[in-house]
């Protein structure tokens, strides 16, 4: 079963997360298939830019709790997006949760419609946004992240844009995206690659410095009793035992 749909128009490759049964959660299979598609885009001279989008009303629900990816594989995917020698743009018209925000923040540009919503829900299932911090922390406002990391609150597209998680938001994501794509199509591929290298240097520094520690933290937290209770409560659609 294909989990990533692919289309191309005027040198822009669109990769669509297409796993509606689990709300495009980051399963081991989806992560592997997306990584393969990105590798092919990187080596294709006819691809000027990549758009990452989704089917259904959810961009990504975060890690698939039934078939989670290996933390090292998720780190590799996020770094692959950051290092891809072509701009990667996220197009969001639905919900983004937990690990999906790491995917969003890995992209060079991100646009969303006002129907989108966002939340770092890790603390509510007994873990922390560890691995995704590699891409989220260098991009977004620290004070805003302190609130949303610690509370798991939901916030809207306007707030996501204000905090730096989005480039722009509007009533129509495609209307926001099209001028950006037009600019990329008018730009030198070599210049785009070198400019992206300048823009992502700080993010890659975080990978070099922190990836091993955050991967170990993620593995430890997901193996904890708190995570077992939180994930069981989530799957059983009940409050975890610590809720008051």
From TrEMBL:
GO molecular function: catalytic activity
Xref: InterPro entries: ClpP/crotonase-like_dom_sf, Enoyl-CoA_hydra/iso, Enoyl-CoA_hydra_C, Enoyl-CoA_Hydratase/Isomerase
Ranges in coiled-coil conformation: none
UniProt similarity note: Belongs to the enoyl-CoA hydratase/isomerase family.
Protein name per UniProt: Enoyl-CoA hydratase
